[in-house]
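Input.
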Amino acid sequence: MRTLRWRDVSEDVRKTEECVRTGKPHYRDTATNVAWRPNRTDALVMVQSARSGTWGLPKGKFEPVDNRLVLSCALRELWEETRLDSTAAESVRYIGSTYTWVSQSGHQDHGLQRGKRLHFVEVRFFPGPLPSISVGDGVTAVRWVTSWEEFLSLPMHAARRAHWLAALRAVDINWARPRSHNKQRW
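Output.
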């Protein structure tokens, strides 16, 4: 049996009631980092979630300290999860956003789903030695990934893998495609 922790759901309830009234779903914004370092073998930062055990890009929800600024949230989450200092980055830029659907935990009534808007931010580090990373908040492991084979071998949700692949296409990561996946659309 799953134990639910108490949290203030008044904002979720208000948004759910608004969704019922208007018929439109509400979205929760998150910022996702594509933190990488170009070199002969491009390297990408991946984290393993402490909650689900799956791998993904460093990401997180907006907090009041972020003032609804995507870059602020992305860089804060990058530091919290990997202890990677973004001041050593060559460039930081907003890539774009996409939507995904998640089930509404705790709101089974009305059969509504909640949308999640993923904002992608590229954090590109200078070529050269890999910056040091370490396990931060909410993750159990952190690593630099240097090939498609390594990326595809990590356990992650299929829908998230599709979002991560789309984000990787938007930056200049230059990994050779694995032979077994040549027919897949990258």
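The radius of gyration is 18 Å.
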